[in-house]
């Protein structure tokens, strides 16, 4: 079946990018590209040309979610598959491909009108990734993609069906707690590349609740957590460990209102057929206390 293989990149419209600098550079240590276009900041976290884009705007909003496939045959098969499902997919312009720095690109809308893209062959830079803060190391990306996202959707059953049938994802597990009912889906060994949840905790349908970046060293997460306190960066959840993917992480509030999760040690699913899909009644083993 045609499907995506990893989360490739994210784009955001931002009203004031200067408000993001503490989180992006002082906490996460991301590298800003010097060749970013006027009114735009592109950020590196590995060998890709960039993984995150922030574009000057009159409001804060999600601009696009970029997925990736591994081969031209997969790209064409997915394009045909989406067309066959009646999804209004279209090939992107040369300008959009240049902006995302990819070889091929298609665009379409998902549940609740969320803007999705699928790319082929993101450009890899010939210069090594250099963190903006030398105390930070590498992110866990590669075949696992850039991380994961949690989206809220009005009709969660229809949304899960879309991610499975349109994008070829598989269910990892579920967590139902308080007013939230979340479904976690994977498209590579990362425990989940997307989670689908009902609108709750201030996140409306079609909105991003958070995205996650994973460090390769737990000490990077610890150092970043210390910096959060030093720089008075607001938190959503304190340091803790999840029940389902076993990630040790914390969640920061961004100027756009959604959160960024920074963690280490997420579980991997290397054989979907042998994986036991389970339902958890809580998202945490310890910590992850809500910051009021």
Strand content: 35-45%
Let me know the average pLDDT. Answer: 96
Intertermini distance: 44 Å
- According to DSSP, the number of beta strands is 18
Low-confidence stretches: none
* Tally of helical runs: 5
* Subunit arrangement of the protein: single chain
Integer count of domains: 2
Radius of gyration: 18 Å
Which CATH top level class of the largest domain fits? Alpha Beta
Topology order in helix (H) and strand (E) letters: EHEEEEHEHEEEHEEEEHEEEEE
Strand order of the largest sheet: 17-10-11-12-9-13-16-15-14-18
Kindly report the name of the CATH homologous superfamily of the largest domain.
Answer: 2,3-Dihydroxybiphenyl 1,2-Dioxygenase, domain 1
Structural class comes to alpha+beta
Percent in helix:
10-25%
Describe this structure in words.
This protein has 292 residues and is α+β, with helices and mostly antiparallel strands. It has two domains: 6-122, Roll (2,3-Dihydroxybiphenyl 1,2-Dioxygenase, domain 1), CATH 3.10.180; 142-287, Roll (2,3-Dihydroxybiphenyl 1,2-Dioxygenase, domain 1), CATH 3.10.180.10. 17% of the residues lie in helices and 36% in strands. The chain is built from five helices and 18 strands. It has helices at residues 21-27, 72-84, 94-100, 156-165, 218-230, and strands at residues 6-14, 31-32, 40-44, 52-56, 61-69, 90-91, 102-109, 115-122, 148-152, 170-177, 180-186, 194-197, 208-214, 235-242, 248-253, 259-264, 279-280, 284-287. A ten-stranded mixed sheet has the order 17-10-11-12-9-13-16-15-14-18. An eight-stranded mixed sheet has the order 2-3-4-1-5-8-7-6. Strand 11 and strand 12 (194-197) form a beta hairpin. The chain is globular. The N and C termini lie far apart (44 Å). This is VOC family protein. Its cofactor is Fe(2+). GO terms for molecular function: dioxygenase activity; ferrous iron binding. Keywords: Aromatic hydrocarbons catabolism, Dioxygenase, Iron, Metal-binding, Oxidoreductase. InterPro entries: Glyas_Bleomycin-R_OHBP_Dase (IPR029068), Glyas_Fos-R_dOase_dom (IPR004360), VOC_core (IPR037523), Xdiol_ring_cleave_dOase_1/2 (IPR000486).
